[in-house]
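Why do we care about 3D structure at all? Because function follows from shape, and shape follows, mostly, from sequence. That is the central idea of this module. The next example makes it concrete: a single protein chain, its amino acid sequence, and then its structure expressed as tokens.
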Amino acid sequence: MNMTNFPGSAGVPPAMARSGRDARAPRIGATWRIGNVIGGLLLASIAAPALAQTVPEAERNVVWHDLAELPLEGQGWKETKHRYDRLPATAEGVVRPPVWTLAQDSTGMRYRFVTDAPFIRARWKVRKPDRLAKSHMAASGVSGVDLYVRDAGEWHFLAVGRPEAGTNEKTLVRGLKPAKREYLLYLPLYNGIESVEIGVPKGASFEPAPDRYAARKPIVFYGTSILQGGCASRPGMAYPAIVDRALDWPTVNLGFSGNGKTEPEMAQLLAELEPAAYVLDSLPNLDVAQVRERVEPFVAVLRAKHPRTPIILVENVNYADTGLIESRRTKVTDTNAYLRRLFEQLKAAGDKHVHYVHASHLLGGDGEDTVDGTHPTDLGFSRMAAGLTPILRTALREAGHAVADDEGFTALFDGKTLNGWKPHDGMPPLHLAGKWWAEDGELRGTQDPPGKGGLLWHEGPFKDFVLKLRVHLTYPMDTGVFVRVGPDGLSHQITLDYRPGSDVGAIFIPFIGHAYVCRNREGEKLVRPDEWNDLEIRMEGEPARIRVWLNDRLLTDFQHTEKTTAGLHPTGGIALQVHPNVPNLTVWKPGAVVRFRDIRIKELK
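And the structure:
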């Protein structure tokens, strides 16, 4: 789609209608959970427009580090005319002039570094100082920089640098607690970069980040302004960037606004690369005749050079007005029908590495996820990433790649036996019953005899970790996950009390006054009744910080104090609960079974 001009320049009228469909964004993974706060990490983050007038004296005397001295990520070719070009120097004069101009935008490029600095400043100079923003896209997305921090093994947004001129100098964040951390800085989406520096105080460390992606070929995305990032609020919200954080996988963004037109010269250029996968998302820039003429030869060029590389074909998004304007509806319907036939032909011909993303996996259809009926908001990009990520994960795995979810985790349950697990016999008498067994890949527990429960324990020990599992709850039911469990039963419980007056995601300290240190009466609303629920628990430090997600929504972010953690063990096992019935408090549905599966843990260092 054309982002060179203002809204409607691609022949796209504003959104004209909204359906009554549920506008909720899909739940796709911890990496982009909206509203997640890096609690305990910082005291304040700064990105105020008047910052230049309010910078403390201590932040003016910094040591500047030119990021050009670090490895640049997100660039497909190294032999470029300018350091931050997205196409090789040999492409000048081969691709059309508008494509070459758009290749000067730094879309998708990023740097990673490690520092223990209590504050971080950025200084960057853009190539197009007269185009800091667009009428329908904020300057922070067009020309800003975007800072993420690696926290508990995953990337979390920390701060954005909002541009005000061709050269900008901003404090991105201050008040950080002293500790070495890995950071990720995205470069502008619709502007180029002449230079970019990070400033830290004298004496603070600054070094390249670990080369965690050395063994991974990038995912190469090709397409339109939607793919390039229009109209993301900041660089990290373009959907390829969301995908790269979700999979913890390097990506190359070759979105060329209204000029990503699936041309043969671009097919030849893309074929020069050695990617882990190709994502082709260019249909919005083509009419029906162009789709029929260009897409199959484009795919054929890539497949001839890369016979086993996954190719993901992405349908044209359903625009906000598709249901009301016949010409738009016909264009979307016909182009997507052709792409589907091509996909089926390739599969029938024996191509085992071609994959497909239906339009229903992209925008929501409610009219609430675009700026102008075409270009997504951050909600729209989150939805698109939600649709693509599982398909990409499957494609990478089938091609023999280990994907982020698999790396660093150890299974605690083999799906067949209770090996490694045993009833916890150190509990009070009320909790020394219950029945546990393995069946159909599930770890199951029930009251036995009726009304009596107990805990099943994996000794560990574990200290700092990420625990992921799936749980199936039947109302009413009282259960939970106990962490850092000692032989005496002292521990922290994450409650799964799916019953009247329940707390789901609360932090409860059993056997020491039976006290809640953190309540969550709203957590029950995130439970998928009688379905599998994804649960993630992260525990770090001492006094511990405990974070809990249910179905990829943050339930709890609790920081213990020495008082709230007094008497508890700094390390321990993992336990699952069948709660006994307690009059006027807890009751299980007769014959109810709590079911767990896919229990895995990653210890943090």
